[in-house]
Specification:
The complex is a heterodimer of chains A (about 250) and B (about 220).
Chain A lengths: L1 E12 L2 E12 L3 E5 L6 H7 L8 E6 L2 E5 L7 H9 L1 E4 L11 H11 L5 H14 L15 H13 L5 E5 L7 H16 L3 E5 L3 H7 L2 E6 L2 E6 L1 H7 L3 H11 L1
Parallel strand pairs in A: 3-8, 3-9, 6-7, 7-8
Antiparallel strand pairs in A: 1-2, 1-4, 4-5, 9-10
Chain B lengths: L2 H46 L3 H16 L2 H11 L9 H26 L3 H9 L4 H31 L11 H12 L2 H31 L4
Helix pairs in contact in B: 1-2, 1-4, 1-7, 1-8, 2-4, 3-4, 4-6, 5-6, 6-8, 7-8
The chains are: A alpha/beta (about 250), B mainly alpha (about 220).
């Protein structure tokens, strides 16, 4: 059963059309990795999935909600919130709340949005921090944590909301190379536990190892998709070969 | 006149002037600043609301207050409104004048502080499912407050000094007392210097307080 279905998704910024009719399905429990050259629209595509960007046209279904977009479509506030509650997002720049400790960061959405009690939220937050290996840093402020640790708090913060889908926007791109491994390890574990994940990344080894499906986005459309073996070994698509070749150098 | 009697004049009038400072200048400053800050936050939120009528009202208010002298505003409130049957006593008139002024100037400080918070903070809050208002209240305002505190502190210290303008609409605050004492003693130099000295005490105490608050806030900022 598909968790996410995108049909003919377009996104236009002013006169620039970034997405030109994307069709994409993400099955429940799968990890889908989106790759593609910079400027291809892959981050915009991901941001459409939790409505940080509104598609200008197309149909977007995620979990229980189906939304039809036309130019000028306005999503009702309640629908928007309910839709977003189904997803968790992990950002390239972490975007932790700097005025809160790691623990408070992971509690915040639970208390403010899900209306959980402080005790319940704290328990859950500690379990999530434990899961990402940072229980002992619960009382640290973001600026006291390394980039890799901040990003793992970011993952714990998203997970604490019990989302149906986790969206990752280049989660390791801002990290020093030696810190990338810890973050990918956590993501791998989540994938193995059956979390539905959509990951925009340049980590091809992660895609190869973890992805159920790899999607190559180019010039605002899905140029090719398939299991990792297909994309990395068998494809004859000139653009993909070019792209992969560039990453190697 | 000789120096010793200057000294004794200074000593004689210190207590009356200082008392007026504590009894009138300080409350006038505090009340106006607190009310002014509330007005400033509301004005900043109105300007950021994106709702055209609110934006227009807020911009008009800031434009008028910042573009006209505070002294003239005080005269309009205290002496002018009387003509259309609105009689406001001196102290409340001063509070209204200073509140409007604090509200206009500080709304720009608060607006800039809110705009200085990176977009990623909004996105993180919204991706958790927060409404705009929840994000504003829980995530943006606490951070913006830290940004705004130093300039707001400066504005508070300016206000202490600006309250001397209230003397011209007959509020019997510190400077009004100094004027009265100068008239009685025929010693304006000593009396006005003494007033300046007392303002200096107030603003120095406040500056010290301000830098302490700033140090406390710095703890959580990278």
């Amino acid at each position: 059963m598909a968790m996410i279905e995108l049909h003919n998704i377009h996104k236009q910024f002013g006169s620039l059309e970034v997405l030109k009719g994307v069709d994409l399905t993400v099955d429940a429990g799968n990890t889908v990795v989106i790759i593609g050259p910079s400027g291809s629209g892959k981050t915009t595509l991901l941001r459409c999935m939790n409505l940080l960007e509104f598609p200008t046209q197309g149909t977007l279904r995620l979990g229980d909600y189906t939304l039809e977009f036309q130019p000028g479509t306005r999503v009702k506030k309640d629908t928007l919130i309910a839709f977003r509650k189904q997803t968790g997002m992990v950002f390239q720049g972490y975007n932790l709340f700097p005025h809160m400790t790691a623990l408070q960061n992971v509690m915040e959405g639970q208390v403010t949005v899900l209306k959980r009690s402080k005790e319940e939220a704290r328990d859950k937050a500690l379990r999530m921090l434990d899961k990402v290996g940072l229980k002992d840093r619960a009382d640290a402020y973001p600026h006291q944590l390394s980039g890799g640790q901040q990003q793992r708090v970011g993952i714990a913060r998203a997970m604490a909301m019990d989302p149906k889908v986790l969206l990752f926007d280049e989660p390791t791109s801002a990290l020093d190379p030696e810190l990338v491994g810890d973050v990918l390890e956590v993501m791998k574990e989540l994938a193995n536990e059956g979390m539905t994940m959509v990951v925009v990344t340049h980590e091809m080894n992660f895609a190869r190892e973890v992805a159920d499906k790899v999607v190559f986005v180019d010039h605002g459309v899905v140029a090719e998709q398939g299991p990792p073996e297909h994309i990395f070994e068998e494809t004859t698509n000139e653009r993909i070969l070019q792209f992969l070749n560039k990453l190697r150098h | 006149m000789q120096n010793p009697s200057w000294m004794s004049l200074f000593a004689t009038y210190f207590i009356p002037m200082f008392t007026k400072g504590i009894e009138v200048t300080v409350p006038l400053t505090l009340i106006s600043f607190v009310l002014g800050l509330i007005l400033a936050v509301l004005t900043a939120l109105a300007r950021l609301s994106g709702f055209a009528p609110l934006v227009a009202i807020a911009r008009f208010y800031v434009w008028v207050i910042r573009g006209t002298p505070l002294l003239v505003q005080l005269f309009i409130i205290f002496y002018g409104l009387y003509q259309i049957g609105v009689t406001i006593p001196a102290f409340p008139s001063a509070v209204i004048g200073f509140t409007l002024s604090v509200g206009a100037y500080n709304s720009e400080i608060i607006r800039a502080a809110i705009l200085s918070i990176p977009k990623g903070q909004w996105e993180a809050a919204e991706s958790l499912g927060m409404t705009r208002w929840q994000a504003m209240r829980r995530i943006i305002i606490p951070q913006a407050t830290r940004v705004a505190i130093p300039p707001l502190g400066n504005s508070f210290i300016s206000l202490v000094k600006d309250t001397s303008l209230a003397a011209v609409i007959t509020v019997t605050e510190l400077f009004h007392e100094a004027q009265a004492d100068a008239a009685v003693t025929y010693s304006p130099l000593v009396m006005y210097c003494e007033a300046a000295f007392i303002y200096l005490i107030f603003s120095t105490v406040l500056s010290t307080l301000q830098s302490r608050i700033e140090k406390r806030l710095d703890r959580f900022v990278a």
